[in-house]
Amino acid sequence: MFDKSTWIRLPRNVVVGHDVRSEVVDVVDDLHLQGRPLFVTSPTPREVAADPIAADFDAAGIDPAIVTIEQATFDAVERVIEVAEAEGVSYLIGIGGGKAIDIAKLASHHLGMGFCSVPTAASHDGIVSNRGSVPDGDSRHSVAAEPPLAVVADTGILADAPWDLTTAGCADIISNYTAVMDWRLAQRLKDVEYSEYAAALSEMTAEILVDNADLIRPGLEESAWVVTKALMSSGVAMSIAGSSRPASGAEHLFSHQLDRLAPGAALHGHQVGVGSIMTAYLHGGDRGIWRDIRDALASIDAPTTADELGIDEATVIESLTTCHEIRDRYTILGDGMNEEAAREVATKTGVI
Ligand SMILES: [Zn+2]
């Protein structure tokens, strides 16, 4: 008896390229979104993107409400919900880096409204995925939400973003290699649901990015193009899988634990990149692909050591030995590494 079913939720309009910022009004119109939007943004993205887009809406006879958030917190989500209700808006547009988009995603989910994503930095795959992540006390919570109805990624704006954010986005994609290894392992050992399509897409995305690493240089719109398309494709893999598995394995657990142990020390993508070097070693030993991952990260200027992350040895070891506890997700870390093993993998891979 065949009784499987799946529900794949994808953005309907994905618009990427030069000066597409000016097409947000058309994108919204194409989606038949009626009424007033609420723009959720943060200070710098407001200047470079939200204000000019607001002017386009004004010109089209639509008066957007705007809320500027400073920090990604649950309080900020609450505030956005209050403003949305007070202003009588009917959909949300997140305009910014990860923060503004995550907040808009979670608030719109709560409000039962649609939302669009206008990323101003190609820093992680959250710009298109259906997961929102917000710090909660001393940890980060990844919450199921809905994927954006549309993504409008202006390569001119993205190319002007701080270079670190772009290299973090690249590292987040390179980590797909180990995320997929963990997923396959979990399928074999724990019968976790697995999608061959999603896994293949996720790996191929990482491969294309690594093959194009030469094109990825500061200030180039072409780089923003390559990275953004890879982030989209990673997000699509997650949508097909119906989970973050294709792009999030033990290297993400490691990074989430670093967020708790050393908040704000390094960017998400940079942390998962370093995590990925070590978990690749755990999967394949010395003959595995850990060197390829390290070299790919180095070639795009992403950190490959604890030092470059600005995180000390003890914290790396603590994270490796405890991060399996933060989430019920089976990975190569199994039921946890002991300290000696953690020190060995971190030393052998040159992370510490
Ligand atoms: Zn990530």
TrEMBL record:
Q: Would the keyword Cytoplasm turn up in this protein's UniProt record?
A: yes
Reactions catalysed, semicolon-separated, are:
sn-glycerol 1-phosphate + NAD(+) = dihydroxyacetone phosphate + NADH + H(+); sn-glycerol 1-phosphate + NADP(+) = dihydroxyacetone phosphate + NADPH + H(+)
Q: Where does glycerol bind?
A: D125, D172, H252, H268
GO biological process terms held by the UniProt record: glycerophospholipid metabolic process; phospholipid biosynthetic process
Q: Name one GO molecular function term.
A: glycerol-1-phosphate dehydrogenase (NADP+) activity
Name the job this protein performs.
Catalyzes the NAD(P)H-dependent reduction of dihydroxyacetonephosphate (DHAP or glycerone phosphate) to glycerol 1-phosphate (G1P). The G1P thus generated is used as the glycerophosphate backbone of phospholipids in the cellular membranes of Archaea.
Q: What is this protein called?
A: Glycerol-1-phosphate dehydrogenase [NAD(P)+]
Q: Which organism is it from?
A: Natrinema gari JCM 14663
Tell me the organism's taxonomic lineage. Archaea, Methanobacteriati, Methanobacteriota, Stenosarchaea group, Halobacteria
